[in-house]
Amino acid sequence: GYNYATAFEMALKMKELTYSIVEPYSSADFLHGPLALIEHGFPAILVAPSGIMLPEMQSFLQVLRQREAEAIVISDDEATLADARIPIPLHASLPEWLSPITAIVPGQLLALYLAHARDYDPDHPRGLRKVTETR
């Protein structure tokens, strides 16, 4: 869906600022192998705004709950947020195609706060240049 790219951007920010191993997946791809990693307390972030992908994301959330994952859910859907370990509500009146604009902000803030918690400088991540040259 529209937020597939949101997952990639969120993972990139987490890697850049916290030096963590974070991998983005669609819910379908996750069920083909990475699901084996999920056990009690394993963190998983779901971007699940209202729209065509919401039913699939709700089913995926139930799988994560059965495995006792720490599900952080970014959504505007009350029922989906109610099933989250950590719910992060989105504004409900946006059309689905605009949801990535607001859905990325919680991921960026999570990366920022985690960097601070680990005593890293998020304004000067190691090895990262603000300008890249393409030839």
Describe the protein.
The chain is an alpha/beta fold and 135 residues long. It has a single domain (4-117), classed as Glucose-6-phosphate isomerase like protein, domain 1 (Rossmann fold). The chain is built from 5 helices and 3 strands, in the order ααβαβαβα. Strands 1-2-3 form a 3-stranded parallel β-sheet. α1 packs parallel to α5. The chain is globular. The relative contact order is 0.19.
Quick description:
With 135 residues, this protein is α/β, with parallel strands linked by helices. The protein has helices at residues 4-18, 27-30, 54-66, 78-82, 99-117, and strands at 43-47, 70-75, 86-89. The protein has 5 helices and 3 strands, in the order H-H-E-H-E-H-E-H.
Name its key features.
135 residues, Rossmann fold, 3-stranded parallel beta sheet, 5 helices
Q: How are the strands of the largest sheet arranged? A: 1-2-3
Indicate the overall shape: globular
Here the CATH topology equals Rossmann fold
CATH architecture verdict: 3-Layer(aba) Sandwich
Number of strands: 3
Structural class: alpha/beta
